[in-house]
Amino acid sequence: PKKQLPPEGKTLKIGKLFQNRIVVVLFLVTIIAVGVEISTLGILTTFLMDLRQFSQATSKIGLIIHLAGVAAGRLIIGMITREEKLVEYLLSLLGAATLFYLGLFFLDLNGLNYLFVFLTGITLSAMLPFIITLAGLHFKDQAGTVIGIIKFAIPIGGILMPFLLSVVSRFANLQTALVIYPLGFLLAFGLVAVGLRGVNSQAITTQP
Question: Are 34 and 207 contacting, i.e. CB atoms less than 8 angstroms apart?
Answer without folding.
Answer: no
